[in-house]
Design goal:
By secondary structure, the protein is of the alpha+beta class. The chain has two domains: about 30 residues, no CATH class; about 90 residues, Jelly Rolls. Helix content is about 15%, strand content about 30%. The protein has a four-stranded antiparallel sheet, with no helix packed on it. A three-stranded antiparallel sheet has the order 5-4-7, with no helix packed on it. Helix 1 packs across helix 2. The radius of gyration is 26 Å and the shape is globular. The chain starts with a helix and ends in an 8-residue tail after the last strand. About 20% of the residues are buried. Keywords: Signal. Pfam families: Cupin_2. This is Cupin type-2 domain-containing protein.
């Protein structure tokens, strides 16, 4: 507190005024926070990826969760790649069109939308007229990559 005498003055004023004021200050300083539940916006709950491929299992090794914020420039396509583990994405900014190389399926996700990524399906993300910022969460294993580029392709990140 910048003026230590101020607390003493407030307490003294409360005592002189009948004690009610100092009691409320003392009570406020010793009370516990109210227990309350948080509000959850459920963004995604899927047992299959955006292209309809079901998830089969989690890794049998020790799990490792990881989360990255990925920024992709406007008018860009990520290299073709696969993910060996289940993962989910959330579009913080911009849009992302995910393309499945084998089936040709495409789906566009906009700011505020979540998506379940494919496992072991070759795909890439393509941005629109502005940069895209994603929050990506992976359920992987320690020391193993979360994204694997196809031969001859750059890394996704």
């Amino acid at each position: 507190m910048r003026f230590p005498f101020l607390k003493s003055f407030v307490l003294l004023a409360g005592v002189l005024a009948g004690g009610g004021f100092s009691m409320s200050i003392a009570a406020a300083q010793t009370s516990s926070p109210t227990t309350a539940s948080g509000h959850a916006d459920h963004l995604l709950a899927d047992d299959h990826s955006w292209n309809g491929t079901p998830y089969e299992h989690y890794p049998t090794t020790r799990p490792m969760l990881s989360m990255i914020r990925l920024t992709i420039p406007a008018h860009s396509a990520l290299p073709w790649h696969v993910h060996p583990y289940p993962n989910a994405g959330y579009v913080l900014e911009g849009t992302l069109t995910i393309e499945d190389r084998q089936s040709g399926k495409k789906r566009t996700f906009h700011q505020g939308e979540a998506f379940a990524e494919s496992v072991n399906d070759v795909h890439r993300g393509v941005t629109g007229d502005s940069q895209t910022v994603l929050l990506l969460t992976y359920a992987g294993s320690p020391g193993k990559p979360t994204s694997i580029p196809l031969p001859g392709q750059q890394k996704e990140y």
